[in-house]
Write a structure and sequence with these properties.
alpha/beta; Rossmann fold; 7-stranded parallel beta sheet; 51% helix
């Protein structure tokens, strides 16, 4: 059997930037083969080539694109999947358009589950006992909600529910791992600004106009001061692939742990007051 035929491969979605791109190098560094995917194949051109890498175009909201990716992996011993692709649609809920919420869920939730269902048969066929893995990358905002992040947070709450349900259904056969990062340095904020579209114009003259501007400044400042690196996140996620008994949840960054703890122990009025004060809503 050739090296390609015997090597364990993991498919990773959303590899053009951030955690996904860092995961490609981290997985290859410990001997895994990687199927790196992105909507535009040109975004993967800077990845070093090798028999342990296959780059594919994959749009998680396109059934045709998913089917083509499955076919392109038929000759690989694909035993793991990391669902990392996603973006953040943010803004005040009363100015959110239905199509914006729908697009957020199509990518972050429906697309994630469509990719999982499409590749699960390959993982079942290829994985020896204890080898198979499915990893869903959610967010600390999948456990709590903050102002102006309703669409994104709602989608990540759904990812948490999908991961926990899938674990109950297939977890004895194939471990399902939920990853919940805190702040990670990436192009997330640039993507967020693009996803806003004409939202800044919609909120002109309302109480949200200064809040939206301050939100972007605060996110950029927080990222510069506190955000962890994608490489750090990738090393944490690698535990899901390499440990014999992977953790059910992987929390990345101290704020992911602290925020969950604070929400659990503070009375609801105090927690809500703290969030409103932090975002200028008091």
């Amino acid at each position: 059997m050739s090296e390609v035929g015997s090597r364990k491969f993991v498919l990773i979605t959303g590899c053009s930037t951030g955690i996904g791109k860092a995961l490609v190098g981290a997985c290859r560094g410990v001997g895994w083969g990687v199927v790196a995917t992105a909507r535009r194949i040109s975004d993967l051109e800077d990845l070093p080539g090798g028999e342990d890498l296959r780059c594919l175009s994959l749009d998680v909201v396109s059934a045709e694109s998913i089917a083509a990716a499955v076919s392109a992996c038929a000759d690989l011993r694909l035993v793991a999947l990391i669902n990392n692709a996603g973006y953040g649609q943010m803004g005040p809920l009363e100015f959110l358009r239905p199509e914006e919420l729908r697009a957020q869920f199509e990518t972050n939730v429906v697309g994630l589950q469509a990719v999982t269902n499409a590749f699960l048969p390959l993982i079942r066929d290829n994985a020896a006992r204890g080898e198979g893995r499915i990893v869903h990358v959610a967010s600390m905002l999948g456990r709590l909600s903050i102002p102006l992040a309703g669409p994104y947070s709602a989608s990540k709450h759904a990812v948490v529910a999908l991961a926990e349900t899938l674990r109950l259904e297939i977890g004895k056969e194939i471990p399902v791992v939920l990853v919940e990062p805190g702040a990670i340095a990436s192009s997330f904020r640039e993507t967020l600004a693009h996803a806003w579209g004409d939202l800044p114009g919609r909120v002109q003259g309302t109480c949200y106009e200064p809040l939206l501007a301050n939100f972007m400044k605060a996110r950029a400042s927080h990222a510069d001061r506190f955000a962890g690196s994608p490489e750090q996140a990738a090393r944490c996620i690698l535990k899901a692939l390499t440990r014999k008994h992977p953790p059910r949840r992987i929390l990345i960054r101290p704020e992911a742990r602290l925020a969950g703890w604070a929400k659990a122990v503070l009375p609801a009025p105090a927690w809500e007051w703290l969030l409103r004060k932090s975002y200028g809503l008091n």
